[in-house]
Design goal:
This protein is mainly α. 54% of the residues lie in helices and 4% in strands. This is Pentatricopeptide repeat-containing protein.
Length: 511
């Protein structure tokens, strides 16, 4: 308090000194309260108690009233960064000080600001005016994450922002006090989905646990399904199953949606055996699986290395229960057949697909091409590509590359070039991988003129070149004894900003 009195005494003495100087110059022109000086008046730095006072433009003899600051106690850790919004209330005898918009950044006083002291961010009317400051809300937690404007309603957006700013030890209950009985469960569902999109499972789980303890916002099955999915995506299977298992004890019945969510959680984490057990439990509890449930289980088993026989057994099971497979079901099965090189099973699935009236898409044909390409059934692959072109489905470049690679493996130059011209005629632009396959084919047969012509075609077509393309060229010309061309290719590689790798340098060494 002694230091505070010393500061106030120094401030009063300085004001009286300025008052005496001003009185010698004559009567000062009184200005109305709340008026600031003209814009031409230079601004001064904010007044900090304990430093030299800024010059006053208008004084009045009444200095008995000291401006006061009205604010809530500020936490000790943040007392130096408190922002204040000032308002003035007229009493009598104004003292006008130059106004600035500078925010107070340093306030070397105790955590609780004394009531008989005023501090201003931008200086306004002092003396017989009382200054009231409202502490600005501190943004804690993760304020850098913003919500897309207009994506949600005002209440939902505010809820997300408040929860995002909540520190780890903050109170969710206090944060949601203002929303009590204002938000619906659909509003909470939107907040959960926003945090799921960010991968913020901690806030999602804290909000969910808070809702479980409330009456006005008790979670329904939709909320349970979302939080199970959020935890499953993060690999927190124990937490996900715990929430799934406690649903009946909270009066929330489990339906196809919550079962599918927990099955997907285990499936995406490679635990297809647990996914199959949950499917059996689902049927035991008289919950009818949907097409989404079966697609989830089949995909989990396919990714987990389940044999084709087991996948086809699940496929037959769903059809037996009256659930019609869709394009996702068939493509999942065909993908599994491609990875297992199961040509007979792929043909059976494709035939069933056509019989069921499901129109194949580019993905379907890509998996078939991949399957028969691995089995080197090149005629079947060519037939599929023509079927795609005739049906208006332009094959992807990867499909043509599969056939090209198969012909290269069989060292069939004529057929490979036929596929290359076929893809160009169909309007499919070759990529670097396409040219690399053909360059490798020509290199094996020592057709250097064809290699030069093909490389020139690459340059003219502005194909994005990669290190593997240059590595094959360097290797081929090096083995043929064309050292000058090897050096030229390396310089061209540098000019094209293609970064050499270890294979490039090995090719240069052995050239």
């Amino acid at each position: 308090m002694k230091g505070l009195r010393r500061v106030l005494g120094r401030w009063r003495w300085r004001c009286s000194q300025i008052q005496r100087n001003e009185s010698k110059l004559g009567n000062a022109k009184l200005l109305l309260p709340e008026l600031s000086l003209p814009s031409s008046t230079p601004s001064s730095p904010p007044f900090i108690p304990g430093t030299q006072s800024p010059s006053l433009h208008l004084l009045h003899s009444d200095l008995t009233q000291i401006p006061t600051l009205n604010t809530a106690p500020t936490p000790h850790a943040h007392r130096h960064t408190t922002n204040m919004t000032l308002s003035c209330q007229s009493l009598s005898s104004p003292i006008l000080i130059r106004t600035t918009t500078t925010t107070l950044q340093h306030f070397p006083f105790p955590a609780t600001i004394p009531s008989n002291l005023s501090a201003t961010g931008g200086r306004r009317l002092l003396g017989s005016y009382i200054l009231r400051a409202r502490g600005k809300e501190l943004v804690l937690g993760n304020p850098s994450v913003t919500v897309e404007k207009g994506k949600y309603s005002y209440d939902v957006e505010t809820l997300i922002k408040k929860l995002s700013s909540l520190p780890p030890g903050g109170s969710v209950a206090r944060c949601l006090d203002t929303f009590k009985n204002k938000l619906s469960l659909n509003d909470f569902a939107l907040a959960f989905k926003e945090f799921a999109h960010r991968g913020d499972w901690q806030r999602s789980l804290r909000l969910f646990k808070y809702m479980q303890r409330q009456i006005w916002c008790k979670p329904n099955e939709h909320i349970y399904t979302i939080i199970i999915g959020v935890l499953g995506r993060e690999g927190l299977l124990d937490k996900a199953y715990e929430i799934f298992d406690e649903m009946p004890s909270h009066g929330v019945p489990r339906s196809v949606f919550s079962f599918t969510s927990i099955i997907n959680s285990y499936g995406r984490n490679g635990q297809f055996e647990t996914a199959l057990e949950l499917l059996k439990r689902m049927k035991k509890e008289k919950v009818q699986p949907s097409i989404l449930t079966y697609n989830t289980v089949i995909n989990a088993c396919a990714r987990g290395g389940y044999e084709c026989e087991g996948l086809l057994s699940l496929f037959a099971e769903m059809r037996h229960e009256g659930i019609q497979p869709d394009i996702v079901t068939y493509n999942t099965l065909l993908s599994a057949c491609a990875h297992r090189s199961s040509g007979d099973e792929a043909e059976m699935v494709f035939r069933t697909m056509n019989e069921g009236g499901i129109v194949p898409d580019i993905t379907t044909y890509s998996y078939l091409v991949d399957t028969f390409g691995r089995l080197e059934k090149l005629e079947k692959v060519s037939e599929l590509l023509r079927e795609m072109e005739d049906g208006g489905n332009l094959p992807e470049i990867t499909s043509y590359n599969v056939l090209l690679e198969a012909y290269v493996h069989s060292e069939k130059i004529k057929e490979a070039m036929g596929v290359f011209r076929q893809m160009q005629a169909a309007g499919c632009v070759p990529n670097a991988a396409t040219f690399t396959i053909l360059l490798n084919l020509y290199g094996k047969h020592g057709r250097y003129d064809d290699i030069r012509e093909l490389f020139l075609e690459m340059k003219v077509s502005n194909t994005d070149l990669d290190p593997s393309t240059y590595n094959i060229l360097i290797e081929v010309f090096g083995e043929g004894g064309y050292f000058k061309e090897v050096v030229t290719l390396f310089h061209d590689m540098v000019e094209e900003n293609v970064e050499p790798n270890m294979e490039t340098y090995e090719g240069l060494i052995f050239a």
